[in-house]
Amino acid sequence: MAGVAVAAAMVLPLAHLVLRASEAADPLALATSARAARALGRTVALATIVTAVATVFGVVLAWVLERTDVPARGLLGVVVALPLVIPTYVLAVAMKDAFGPSPLLVELPGVVGFRGAAAALTLATYPYVFLVARATLASVDPALEEAARSLGDRPRRVFRRVVLPLLRPAAAAGGLLVFLYTLSDFGAVSILRYETLTVAVFGEYRTSFNRARPAVLGVLLVATTLVAVAVERRARGRAAATRAVAGTRPSPRRGLGRWRWPVTAAVLAVPVAGAGVPLGVLVYRASLGSGSGERVEVLARAAVSSVGLSAAAAVVAVVLAVPVGVLVVRFRSRFATFVEAAATAGYALPGLVVALALVFFAARHVPLVYQTPALVVFAYVIRFYPEALGAARASIAAVDPALEDVARTLGDTPVRALRRVTVPLVRGGLAAGGALVFLTAMKELPATLLLRPAGMDTLATRVWTGAAEGFYRQAAPAALLLVLVSALALGPALRLAHRGGAE
Amino acid sequence: MSTGVALEHVAKAYGRVAAVDDVTLALPAGQVTAVVGPSGCGKTTTLRVIAGFERPDRGTVRVGDRVVAGPGVFVPPEQRRVGMVFQQLALFPHLDVAGNVSYGLRDLPRRERVARVAELLDLVGLSRMGLRRADQLSGGEAQRVALARALAPRPSVVLLDEPFSSLDVGLRAGLRAEVRRILHTAEVTTLLVTHDQDEALSMGDHVAVMFTGRVVQSGPPEDVYRRPSDPRVGAFLGDANDVAGHAAGGVLHTELGPVPVVGAAEGPATALVRPEDLDVVVAPDGEAVVDDVDYFGHDQLLTVRLASGARVRARLHARVRVEPGSRVRVVPCPDEPVVAFPIQ
């Protein structure tokens, strides 16, 4: 039952969006109009270049950290992943403030436009590839690379013939994440004035009373997403599942010699550009503004809204994840697979599309929730439910069902066995999943912009509206606070990522 | 075409721990040498030194006439022509069977490469498996692919690192014979590293026993088994009774009666008596009592308590009916003198 409800909640709004799009006088003409075509072309161009560069960055950084003797690898690994806590629109705000027109530091050409958007998104997304590639490299049996050497390959050739092919599935998976992220990004591209599909959807929604026009563009965006997923399926190649071999020696590392410190500096330069510089700019900007700066109570109210909405979404997502997790892990069936697929679909959907679908759906069918915080929470749950489900799934799968059987033979009813044995064992994993949902919901921008009740501000919307209107003094403190709260939630979320990697 | 390998006074330490202390060992050309020892004795490090994955701190390694590691010399693994079969096999998961076997044949023209792969797959009995993926192979098949891959570039030496440890016990015996056949067909100098004494004795033309970073004894399997140079070697290679007595004129006088010995000249000594060198006769007036019977079907292993309270193990036919509590006589019956060590 719970499974059906969750799946339905995920799928219904999207179906509604397609319905609305089909109501347009001539949906095909709309989808192929000059504006749509231009936005689509820009979206694909941006996503392609960002994916290519971020994948190279991620793979190279992962290789350096896993296979060379750079110093302080543990700390360096954390630092390299740091841009993950910086939302793209925060990065964009800082870039525009520091290097855009009338700059805080120095004007660089092209910061507003394609180059700026590509740089911001690349710096924000390479950690996805980095983390996946690094986990893969760490789990590869070192004997594979040794076998290649004993068969006559020089180290460089081993990299090309063994390491790269082994990394291919990881690079494809990480690359897909980057591609989807770029497709769905709204904050950075809107702040840096590069009209991709999301910006076009938002513009149509704001300026036209015709609901069909944004709906058609939204469907176009979803279609692009589906194509990207299909392409990745192909690119992953034969699933070269590398079995982690327990208890083997660690992989040999290459001595960098006199290149050790220059390489370390180059590695550090990437997160410095992606996290260090923007944070520095924001701190500097925030310290400048006192008179016309952000009023404390406005900031506080926005922070409370952000935390409240995100926490509610985290709790709802985790509560809904438990029954579906049990269904998927313990009762493997075609139905369970379908529920899981439906529940996971929201992840691939751009937040703006989910929000648009919910706006239309609620306005027409459930006016009671239209323009309420509940609808925002619902949108977060649709978007980020898979994070909670993944955590629930992993932790439930890690519990041996025989443990519950033991409890049964000792006199527990099934429900009591679940409560006394399984729930305590999965509690940590669920909490981590909740933290992950909280973290991503805090950063969510487009759905919040569309769905928030009139007059309600979150930290994310404060940053965006401030940046859109050039009020950097408004944007900077909200951005800093957002990063701070996100960083606090990151600890539990990372623990989850570790556990996920161990399986 | 195959060449021998010689290690002279090789040492390798990790930090302050000496993994290999001082190893001198010769691998005769075209034969299988099995290095056996308990885990942590340095046997795998020795193998990795020969392969070129570890750089020795001291000593010299020669492959044929060529010094591959020594003072001021270190040849990287890819230039040594040393093939290796890894403990976990390490088949490339992104390549099929033929791709794995042809990996080291990069420099051959395509036609020769295809022919060589076919030849190798035929040798290991997997002719039809070329297009299989590594994860579609059974344990034994994967094992043979790993061996074919190592042999394909015609290495001068092949190193096998615990090659059967990942297999079910039932599969091992058959595969051992198969691998021995393949290695002898290929006439390649082989070093096999194992902690399993049965594997060492059955696979090796020569056996070298290692303890704590040193080779304690090496020679043909029968010699090492029958005439251990050291009580630890005797105890490690199979079951053995330490029977104490007094040696005089090539005979050790023991509680079991006289035992012909070599080794200890005169005075107090211990003989290393294998369970199969003891005969057990059921006798109501016997002074020894059967403590325990391990029945294996084809034979049985008895634990017998002697009049003095000492216990010995004896192997005898399953036809003889004994049970715990039976009174017996234990009679030494070695085919040849056994090794005795003087008691210090």
Written account of the structure:
The complex is a heterodimer of chains A (503) and B (344). Chain A is mainly α. Chain A folds into 2 domains: 27-286, Orthogonal Bundle (MetI-like fold); 289-503, MetI-like (MetI-like fold), CATH 1.10.3720. Chain A has 21 helices and no strands. Chain A has helices at 2-22, 27-31, 34-67, 73-81, 88-99, 114-139, 142-150, 155-184, 187-191, 197-207, 212-235, 260-288, 296-330, 334-348, 351-365, 373-397, 401-409, 414-443, 446-451, 459-468, 472-502. Chain A starts with a helix and ends with a helix. Mean pLDDT of chain A is 85; it is low at 239-247. Chain B is an alpha+beta fold and 344 residues long. Chain B folds into 2 domains: 5-235, 3-Layer(aba) Sandwich (Rossmann fold), CATH 3.40.50.300; 239-342, OB fold (Dihydrolipoamide Acetyltransferase, E2P). Chain B has a 6-stranded mixed β-sheet, with helices on both faces. In chain B, strands 2-1-4-5-6 form a 5-stranded antiparallel β-sheet, with helices on one face. In chain B, strand 8, helix 5 and strand 9 (189-194) form a beta-alpha-beta unit. In chain B, 42% of the residues are buried. The model of chain B has no long low-confidence stretch (mean pLDDT 90). The chains are: A mainly alpha (503), B alpha+beta (344). Chains A and B meet through helix 7 and helix 8 of A and strand 7 of B.
